Amino acid sequence: MSASKMPTPQPAERVGAAPRNKVVDGPADEPDFRTLLNAWLESHRASLVDSLRRLARQPIGSFFTCLVMAVALSLPMGLSLLLDNVEKLGGSWQRAAQISLFLDMSAGERDGQALREQIAAMDDVSDAEWISREQALEEFQQLSGLGQALKELPENPLPGVVLVTPKEVDKAKLEALRQRLAELPKVEQAQLDLVWVERLTAILKLGDRFVFGLSLLLILALLLVIGNTIRLHIENRRAEIEVIKLVGGTDGYVRRPFLYMGALYGFGAGIFAWLLLAFGLDWLNDAVVRLAGLYGSDFALGGVPSSDGFSLLLGAVLLGYIGAWLAVARHLNELAPR
Amino acid sequence: MIRFEQVAKRYPNGHVGLHELSFRVRPGEFLFVTGHSGAGKSTLLRLLLAMERPTSGKLLLAGQDLSTITNAQIPFLRRQIGVVFQNHQLLFDRTVYDNVALPLQILGLSKPEIAKRVGAALERVSLSDKAAQAPGDLSTGQQQRVGIARAIVHRPALLLADEPTGNLDPRLAAEIMGVFEDINQLGTTVLIASHDLALIARMRQRMLTLQRGRLIGDGEAA
């Protein structure tokens, strides 16, 4: 240890202690909570502004990244919206799962109406319709083509019917409702076409599963797109990251601008996807209205509901954020100063 | 301030960076580490910055054992050290001001405090009028002074410099050394890795001499 020219000032006893004689002028006090909070907020603002500036500096690249993400987002969302519309087109699915209550032959108009009202008031019933014996016969005569033969019968053989439309198409719930209705007075038989309901449920489940599977695949694709984009940004800023780490930047500090960038990509993609869906459904609607008109229907496709649009936007931002987080987490160890 | 106790650094490929090195540095001291290329100067600095860990031995920096420091603690250790590189390591897409302000932004200081300290640091290296310029518009010597301003702006207890005058002519090199001396006079421990023996001799400070990772000399430069 050389002692020939030791400096005179009192030594700082620990790393982090400000030297007695300051290197530069100014107070060396530790910042208080308010200052730290303000600095933290300022750091977030700066990261957000910096990320926006970097995206704006590469408008074409940013646009196409958002567009690719938007296409991936709009596919499952668009399919889901189309399925909703198809359900409307085919009439309510619930109607296909109606329960027919055949009343005994002694039940008259007043019994039928009273029963209809009682059933319509049930929580799990969407609608109940009373068809009297006379109406039933008239319909049967018209539909069967056996009008003359039926007129020759000594009396009307058809019972009065209450058609019950349930609120939910669920096999177990429908069966429970059927059993409950079968126990009502004047009800001779409660019939539910479970095979049809099962088919319907299976079709719905298939549709749901297809949309779910497609969503998963496209979410994975989105994460890969955003991960790769953020990886390129990390590579471009490697020198800067190394300097930040050398002067004491934490992993969180390094990660922050990339997370904002991911969220901004997601936000852009969400907006584009919303627009794509809105314009896409509007474009399809002309053809659908023309087709529906040929069948005497006034059916038209609905647009993108605001709630779905905002969910899409939020989901896109979250996906962008998560994708960026995964990318930075994966590459952070490689960013150690050299 | 710094204590090396039988510190060795061996790399997986068999290369030995440092052989059982032992020495101490007192707080406020000014010393050079010299030696030929490959002597272990950079390895020594990298160990002090926790960029690498010793293979064996004990390395204490102000009482903190750097051989057992956790990854989460490293950023907070580095906030107490100023470091100057031969190639400056400046960010060329930012202004001189923003480069110098970086350690203070990381520390979370307020904007007025940052402005005050950056102004003082730039004044110390005589670059107050260059704050708004990009580092690319400055000369090599000026860039090195920006690097020094960034290294001292957060008032580190220890200042490390790796060949800080390597690319400079003798006049600029002497000027930079003058800045280091000023900083040291204010109480900061300064450790400079350099192979410029003529310059070191002029400074008349303590000098550690390394050769192939071994300490072969410890005394005032003659």
Strand arrangement in the largest pleated sheet of chain A: 2-3-1-4
How many beta-strand elements of chain A? 4
Largest interface: A-B, 49 and 66 residues
Strand content of chain B: 25-35%
Protein name (chain B): Cell division ATP-binding protein FtsE
Keywords (chain B): ATP-binding, Cell cycle, Cell division, Cell membrane, Membrane, Nucleotide-binding
GO biological process, one term (chain B): cell division
Subcellular location (chain B): Cell inner membrane; Cell membrane
Describe the structure.
The complex is a heterodimer of chains A (338) and B (222). With 338 residues, chain A is α+β, with helices and mostly antiparallel strands. Chain A has 2 domains: 45-89 and 200-335, no CATH class; 98-192, 2-Layer Sandwich (Alpha-Beta Plaits), CATH 3.30.70. Chain A is built from 11 helices and 4 strands, in the order αααβαβααβαβαααα. Mean pLDDT of chain A is 80; it is low at 1-29. Chain B is α/β, with parallel strands linked by helices and 222 residues long. In chain B, the strands form 2 sheets. Chain B has a 6-stranded mixed sheet with strand order 6-7-8-3-9-10, sandwiched between helices. A 4-stranded antiparallel sheet of chain B has the order 2-1-4-5, with helices on one face. In chain B, β1 and β2 form a beta hairpin. In chain B, α3 (96-107) runs parallel beside α5. The longest helix of chain B has 16 residues, at 170-185. The model of chain B has no long low-confidence stretch (mean pLDDT 89). At the A-B interface, α1 and α9 of A face β2, α2, α3, α4 and α6 of B. Chain A: The chain crosses the membrane at residues 60-83, 210-230, 258-281, 309-328.
